[in-house]
Amino acid sequence: MNGHAVVIAGGGPTGLMLAGELALAGVDAAIVERRASQEVDGSRAGGLHARSIEVLDQRGIADRFLSEGQAMQIAGFARVPLDISDFPTRHNYGLALWQSHIERLLVGWVGELGVPIYRGHEVTGFAQDDTGVDVALSDGRSLRAAYLVGCDGGRSLIRKAVGIAFPGWNPSGSWIIAEVEMEEEPEFGIRREGGGIGRASDGVRIRVVLTEQVTEHTSEPTLQDLSEALIVAYGTDWGVHSPTWISRFTDMTRQAASYREGRVLLAGDAAHVHPPQGGQGLNLGVQDAVNLGWKLAQVVKGVSPDSLLDTYHAERHPVAARVLRNTMAQTALLRPDDRIEAARDIISELLGMDEPRKRFAAMMSGLGIHYDLGEGHPLLGRRMPDLDLVTANGPLRVYTLLHDARPVLLNLGAPGGCDITPWADRVRLIDAKYAGVWELPVLGAVTAPTAVLIRPDGYVACVGDLTRPGLADALTTWFGPPTAA
Fold it and tell me: Are 406 and 428 in contact (CB under 8 A)?
């Protein structure tokens, strides 16, 4: 029986990001992916929000994505655009880039890190015990792992097999989406009820998104289904033919009751599904992975107790719950009804005001995420800004300190004011100066701290005096007990 410290079921963006995070921490992780190649049809996600770009920047790979996509203002709520160009971030924009390209770039990254991918295989079952998990593959082989992570999508076999409930709401609507050719020129434009017809990225083929009359389906959509939907909507199908791909999505909204059951964890769509409004799904999964990766690595390596994994659910479950609620609200506001349209006009007027616009834009872009780490400085539990620091060795960006996914204690007071020797094998101490304004999205300017403890995921775990007992407590909580002298 072959073995790995962590087996990841699913090689989409979430699974790939998690594998990269674990590999950076020196953990032997492997991906089991049912697809023989990384090809993805164009119906999947089409972009990255600002916080996801920051996350990639924290690992030193953002430029790979920025060079292939188109930076633009992509945040919005119920078709109301939300401009974040005045947000205090190096990446005050989103990135238009199809999931197929996102996955290709992530595959290249994890390949550089030496992550094995079992292609053309699926996890068909597993059994966990006190020391690990036996993972059965579709070819009859078995893998032994300390932990198994289900990144295998909304229909997750891992979630179902481990018995984690998936409560939520059944679909109230269904949409068919395709890239095709047509014998005649169609009627281009967006429809009142949502969807419409436009040119594909090649400028030749045609992309169609249409509401379906039936919400429950037992089979994959066909060209005939698309033709019928076109005839219902437009009275003709314009001789539709030669589909590159056809898919469908619904507004089903569900969330796993728990993100962990023993040695089995869930991330991405396996943990939460929701309507696509706002383009939040892929981003949510990637950020699940970045939250989980360093914690799982520390537990696998014996640095931290198993209980650290419980903070993954505690932090990420509320974030996804918020996304579920905002996508449900957007779906309701996009219904083709005069009264709903009046409500949408009021929302549009509200979001035209500065304060509501900033709050909603921070929510949709991921820049407003705040983990509840207790009372304290506004930075606590929020993303660390990517400041331009001055150090004894020259200028330095904060995010370059996170490229290897190690925690950083940033001392902004007098050099040599802290001894973290008991954690020096895990936490990097940097003495630096910053003369500018400390500013956070929505909150604005905040008091400059004397020290900041930054987790590998870029969130602030402790703020303040390096000599106070709270620092030692935070170091122990997040990065394990002190090493004996």
Answer: yes
- Tens of pLDDT, residue by residue over 449-477, are 999 999 999 999 999 876 677 899 999 99
Asked if residues 172 and 215 have their Cβ atoms less than 8 Å apart, the reply is yes
Q: What is the DSSP string of 342-374?
A: HHHHHHHHHHTSHHHHHHHHHHHHSTT-B----
Residues 206 and 265 in one domain: no
Give 208's strand partners.
178, 197
DSSP code string of 79-98: TEE---TTSSSS--SEEE--
CATH code of residue 234 = 3.30.70.2450
Could you report how far apart the first and last alpha carbons of the chain are, in Å? 39
Domain assignment of residue 397, given as a range: 388-479
Which two structure tokens, joined as six digits, stand for 250? 């619904």
The candidate with the shortest Cα–Cα distance to 229, out of 274, 191, 203, 200, is: 191
Comparing CA positions, the residue from 479, 419, 485, 478 lying closest to residue 451 is 419
Residue 270 in contact with residue 153, Cβ under 8 Å? yes
Q: Per-residue pLDDT tens for 88-139? A: 999 999 999 989 899 999 999 999 999 999 999 999 999 999 999 999 999 9
One domain, residues 144 and 203: no
Domain shared by 302 and 451, yes or no: no
Residues near 291 by beta carbon (within 8 Å), at least 6 away in sequence: 312, 315, 316, 457
Total number of domains in the chain: 3
Residue 335 sits at φ, ψ, to 5 deg, of: -70, 145
Structural domain includes residue 347 = yes
Count the alpha carbons within 13 Å of 200 in the hemisphere toward its beta carbon.
19
Bridge partner list, 3: 144
Same domain membership, residue 190 and residue 278: no
Question: Domain check: are 155 and 218 in the same one?
Answer: no
Q: Which of 67, 275, 29 is nearest to 169 (CA)?
A: 275
Out of 205, 231, 250, pick the residue that ends a domain.
250
Could you tell me the two tokens for 418? 């802290």
Which pLDDT belongs to residue 54?
98
Residue 263 and residue 145 share a domain: yes
CATH number at residue 434: 3.40.30.120
| Contacts of residue 46, Cβ cutoff 8 Å, sequence gap at least 6 | 96, 97, 98, 99, 279
- Write down the H helix ranges in 186-280: 223-234
d(CA 108, CA 65): 12
Relative orientation angle of helices 13-24 and 281-300, to the nearest 10 degrees: 30
Identify which of 166, 151, 135 has the alpha carbon closest to the alpha carbon of residue 266.
Answer: 151
The DSSP code for 191 is -
Co-location of 141 and 203 in the same domain: no
CB count, 10 Å around CB of 188?
10
* Whole-number pLDDT of residue 216: 76
Q: Measured between alpha carbons, how far is residue 217 from residues 209, 247, 248 in Å?
A: 17, 12, 10
